[in-house]
Amino acid sequence: MFKSLLKCSAFAIAVLVLLYLPILSWAQTTIKEEAKAAKVTPDLLALIANQSNTVAPVNGLQKVDLFQRNGNAIAIEAFTAPGQDSQTLLQALQALGLQNGIVYRQTIVGYLPVNKLVELKNISALKLARPSYKPTRNTGAVTSQGDVAMRANIARSTYSVSGAGVKVGILSDSYNALNGAAAGVASGDLPAGVQVLTDFLSPDATDEGRAMAEIVHDVAPGSAIAFSTAFVGGEAGFAQNIRGLATAGCKIITDDVSYFAEPFFQDGLVAQAIDDVVTNNNVSYFTAAGNSGRSSYQSPYSSVSFSDPAYAAGTFSAHDFGGGDKRQSITIPGGAQILISFQWDDPFFTVSGGAGARTDMDLLVYVNNVYQPTLSSVGNNIGDDPVEIIAITNRGGSPATLELVLVKRAGPDPTLVKWVNFANTVTIEYDTRSSTAVGHGNTRLGASVGAAAWYNTPAFNGGLTTAVIETFSSAGGTPVLFNTAGQRITTVVRQKPDLTAADGGNTTFFFADSPSDADAFPNFFGTSAAAPHAAAVAALMQEKSGNTLSPATILSILKQTALDMDDPLTPGFDTGFDFRTGSGFVQADAAVQAVGGTPNTPPTVANIIGPKSATVGQAFTYTIPANTFTDAQTPNSLTITVSGLPPNLTFSGGTISGTPSVSGVSTITVRATDPGGLFVTTTFTLTVNPAETVTAPFSITGVTTISCRTLNVSQVAVTFTPLYAGLTGQPISFSVVSFLQPTTAPGPYTVNFVFKSPSVTLRARQAGTPGEASFTYNWQAACNALRARLAAATPEEGPAQLKVLLYPNPVGDEFAIRIQGAQGQPVKIALTDVSGYAISTSAVDVKTSDHKEQLRFGQQRAGLYLLRVSTPEQAVILKVIKQ
Asked: Which pLDDT score, from 0 to 100, does residue 808 have?
């Protein structure tokens, strides 16, 4: 990423001051004291005084704002005071307007309105607030040349691996802020369904994470991919999202992000998260070693007296670079920049809590022998973190020289001082060419990856016997002096980087085309590109093993099979490990070949499942037998899924269950999938039988009286319909003793009754059913009840006319009706056949003037049926023709 130089035409050095931006009229002592009282760092204190963060040029030097902003808010990291609760601090900050707050241990990260910074001093739960600065990135139809350089194409064809069944997680700035993901999927340079847990949708986003995904897809096209940003929430958000990818099932994770304030001499929040997922989630982690080469100064602290009234009154101690020289000159080429993180051997409060740093160091910048306060970094370190950061850009076309002074303001002398330049190559006086793989690039359990350009490998350059390390690829050797509790330990120097992988290959959009190849596709350089190349090879290895390799085994095989390389800055050829190239250049074919065990094979069907049956309306349960499938590699880790189930049946926990609602025959498919994504299927039939019907004895169960019309003083014409039970569908002969001879005509019937016989006997016989059914029908009482209901309404307020509309008619299994004129009344709905057999009955409370109901036949045959809709006062009977 830092290989691209910033081209500008101004003849000055523009400065990015990260941890200190004073107002020139303030005295240094006042700045430190006021910042401490305000519970902020000096740069936030200056922002309180000058909310635009614009400082007038001083001797032609201009400050460049690197704060992360969101509208009128700035990203901050707030630390909980000793004895206080982080949730209490979060609530207090939210009351001031904090947005997107993240709580990680005792740290709160989020966006706070700039005009609320002045109120931070009133929060008792706050120890200190500082800016959360933008991190840096260690900078796909298209295929990366790194695929061939590392012989991954040979590994795939020889061993039939593609990374299938292995999910790879990626952390960078953004994935689809530029809206190019869909085009990448369409061109085949990205897999479909990339899982994006969090993204960084900012104008500053570059979608470098999507470029990394294209590399992974080139090398391991069968792997699923997930992405989460490392640019939101500072180091705490980064660590949280590492664990989030592991929880999402990623077994390989890679990142290309560095935070300038990550501890050099202690494992910080990000490094601890990496160790956590490697240990507890069996994740193999690959991080970019860095792009700083050996642009670093490291030395035991050597004290010499220092004073400068322009800095502060009094005499202090400064570091002696040699021969009593307190100043170290750095020459920056035109258009280049430096970004220096300066640290010393104290524990970080943000990592360990407790007392934090014991010593307060300041990083002073001089130009032409004049102290430049706006370019310097002078935070209050005691009780906080031992780090000061500056960044300076030379906007002119000619080289410019600055001088650094490392001043001890208070506390005991440090034992070791070190700074790392995260930007362009510069000329350094008293250059120690020390390690630059720091922070989580020096992780204990993760793999740190250096970079070699694809065209400087034997696969593309026949004159080479091994790969050549990129000049910018970071060197390892940074000592670890403290444990995570902040206790000093025996010095540990880890063998970092672990490996070297290819960079500079093609992508579809990132970053820019290089003359190193003949095509016009953009080329992606940096350890940012090398790390996903190595991660994808690990996915091929994991697939071949059936997802059984531990992270330690994967890393060990990659190292043992790597092509040995040399660090050109050391004498002779470095046989074996060296602090620039690690164990050498990744050889994918040799690594996959070295994976123990046989290649993964699909599961097999051990026992077939016979036909099954169920019944509509009755509960059904069937458990897939455990011995249905077997697998040579992972017999106890198969995932079983089922498809083709009839309605109302579901599959969960190995069991099919539910109550079938529709009869018929279904073919059920059972699939067993192993952890590598290979599968086998078997089928069986499930027959759902119709619901069983229980026939009741044939009888007349009641009568529906439809109308009563007086003929004369002795006779009444009554229209009615008998209701039956126990119907078999055979013809029914109906009669009324003394009034109606037997008839097989369906009702309703109209019979002239006489007043002297208020009750009559109804008789019916059903063909094929022995016996006769009878029922005493008090027609007179029924008519009186009907007339009473009709008479209840006065002529002025008579009931609304009941109307029932049926649609469609003829009908199928389902039909609808509309009921009008029954608002506010209970309504009974009865569906019978022509013989009076009740098919369905229901009661509804009609709330509207135009009420709709949906009715359904069971398994009745086609024919004529009767629908009776009645209120307490009225009734309507309609003929229903079922097709």
From this structure: 76
Task: Give the SS3 label for residue 666.
Answer: strand
Instruction: Provide the 10 A C-beta neighbour count for residue 355.
Output: 13
Q: Is the pLDDT of residue 318 over 80?
A: yes
836: left (phi over 0), alpha (psi -120 to 50) or beta: left
pTM for the whole structure: 0.66
795 has pLDDT over 50: no
* CA-to-CA separations, 263 to 31, 75, 358, 360, 476, in angstroms, rounded: 25, 20, 15, 16, 15
> 188 vs 632, which has greater pLDDT?
188
Residue with tokens 């994504």: 677
Q: What does the block give as tokens for 50?
A: 């000058």
Instruction: Check residue 245 and give left, alpha or beta (phi > 0: left; psi -120 to 50: alpha).
Output: alpha
Average confidence score pLDDT of the chain: 88
Q: What are phi and psi of 825, to 5 degrees?
A: -120, 150
Confidence (pLDDT) at 709: 87
Instruction: Give the pLDDT mean for 470-475.
Output: 96
Q: What does the alpha-carbon distance between residue 141 and residue 317 come to, in Å, rounded to a whole number?
A: 60
Kindly write down the DSSP assignment for every residue of 281-338, as one continuous string.
H--EEEEE--S-TT-EEEEE--EEEEEETTTEEEEEEEE--BTTB--EEEEE-TT-EE
Q: For residues 111 and 99, what is the distance between their CA atoms, to the nearest angstrom?
A: 5
At residue 236, does pLDDT exceed 50?
yes
At 738, the amino acid letter reads S
Q: In sequence order, what are the beta bridge partners of 300?
A: 416
Residue 3 vs residues 453, 470, 724: alpha-carbon distances, Å = 13, 11, 93
Of 223-227, 613-617, 827-831, give the range with the top mean pLDDT.
223-227
CA distance 399 to 422: 18
User: Using alpha carbons only, what angle is made at residue 676 by residues 675 and 677, rounded to the nearest 5 degrees?
Assistant: 90
Domains, the chain, with CATH or none: 138-293+441-594 (3.40.50.200), 604-689 (2.60.40.10), 693-791 (2.60.40), 794-883 (2.60.40.1930)
Q: What is the three-class DSSP state of 410?
A: strand
Measure the CA–CA gap between 61 and 394, rounded to whole angstroms.
Answer: 9
Integer-rounded Cα radius of gyration of the chain: 42
DSSP code at position 145: T
- CA dist 622 and 633 (Å) reads 27
Q: Which two tokens stand for residue 781?
A: 């009482």
Q: Assess contact for 642 and 669: CB atoms under 8 A.
A: yes
The partner residues of 316 in beta bridges, in order of sequence, read 306
Residue 154, SS3 per DSSP: helix
Whether residue 358 contacts residue 482, with contact meaning beta carbons closer than 8 Å, is answered with: no
User: Higher pLDDT residue, 518 or 382?
Assistant: 382
745 Cβ neighbours under 8 A, 6+ residues apart: none
Provide the Cα torsion 708, 713, 714, 716; round to 10°: -10
Read off φ and ψ for residue 43, nearest 5 degrees: -70, -35
Token digits for 226? 């997930």
Enter the tokens of residue 222: 């069968």
The stretch 580-596 carries a mean pLDDT of 93
Which residues are CB-contacts of 146 (< 8 A; sequence separation ≥ 6)? 152, 215, 218, 219, 454, 501, 502, 503, 504, 505, 529, 530, 533
CB 533 within 8 A of CB 450: no
Let me know: does 108 contact 102? Beta carbons within 8 Å: yes
Output the CA–CA distances (angstroms, integers) from residue 840 to 538, 654, 843, 854, in the order listed: 66, 38, 11, 12
CB 337 within 8 A of CB 392: yes
Strands 252-255 and 167-172: parallel
What pLDDT, in 10s, does the model give residues 679-729? 899 999 999 999 866 567 889 999 999 888 888 878 899 999 999 888 888
